[in-house]
Amino acid sequence: MGCHIALFTLPFHGPRQTRFSPFSGHGFFAGGSSRFNEAVAQAVFDFRILLRWLRREQGVAQVGVTGLSLGGFISAMLASVEKGLAFALPNVPIISVADLVLEWQPIGALMRAALVTTGLTPADARRLVAVSCPLTYPPVLPPERLMIVGGAGDRLAPPKHSRLLWDHWERCRIYWFPGSHSIHLDRGKYLTEMARFMMGLGFLPQGGAR
């Protein structure tokens, strides 16, 4: 379609897992709020190093970012700090991790009970990870360089997460597909919309969308 793709491995995923990790990504959340905040900061830091390497060492003129689920969350975080991005395009992003954990069952009931035991509230839980929430920061990219893809039937990252980010990003371009977090119905249509978005920015050559 007229661009190269660099696949970025998040901390605690794939070959970056800890030695006894039961599954890829386990360590991102296993250490509580402090580990999560550190992992998000590391992911943003690592990507910014990659971005500069692509530009300075490889001569890349434009770099955009997109990601799915947790990758969409990191894409949204990058839109809060990295002005050098051509665009940020989170796909079914998780936005408020605290709310997400409190909504998942049965872990949500356990977490709420733990909060009551320690004298904390859901608002306190949000504050613990506020440093790692895209809603905490204004985007450094203008709305025309932002796009969100949301799943209307997503139960893992409910649609309200995409809606909250959409409102925060001054109601930038958004596309809803009829599917869940893992089953993306009509994926061809939203891939076409993504391509049109990138062509409109001059990132992809005209005629790349079908």
CATH-assigned fold name: Rossmann fold
Low-confidence stretches: none
Helix and strand composition category: mainly alpha
- Following the backbone from N to C, one meets helices and strands in this order, namely HHEHEHHHEHEH
CATH class descriptor: Alpha Beta
CATH superfamily: Alpha/Beta hydrolase fold, catalytic domain
State the end-to-end CA separation. 10 Å
Radius of gyration: 18 Å
Under the CATH scheme, the architecture is 3-Layer(aba) Sandwich
Number of domains: 1
Strand order of the largest sheet: 1-2
**Overall mean confidence score, pLDDT:** 91
Secondary structure tally: strands: 4
Fraction of residues in β-strands: 5-15%
Number of helices: 8
Major beta-sheet overview = 2 strands, parallel
Q: Into which percent range does the helicity of residues fall?
A: 40-55%
Q: What would the principal axes of the Cα set say about the shape? A: globular
Task: Write structural notes for this entry.
This protein has helices at residues 26-30, 32-56, 70-78, 97-103, 107-118, 122-128, 159-168, 187-200; strands at 65-68, 88-91, 147-151, 173-177. The chain has a two-stranded parallel ribbon. The protein has a two-stranded parallel ribbon with strand order 3-4. With 210 residues, it is mostly helical. The mean pLDDT is 91. α7 links the parallel β3 (147-151) and β4 (173-177). The N and C termini lie close together (10 Å). It is globular and about 55 Å long. α4 packs across α5 and α4 (97-103) crosses α6. The chain has one domain (14-200): 3-Layer(aba) Sandwich (Rossmann fold). It contains eight helices and four strands; from the N terminus they run ααβαβαααβαβα.
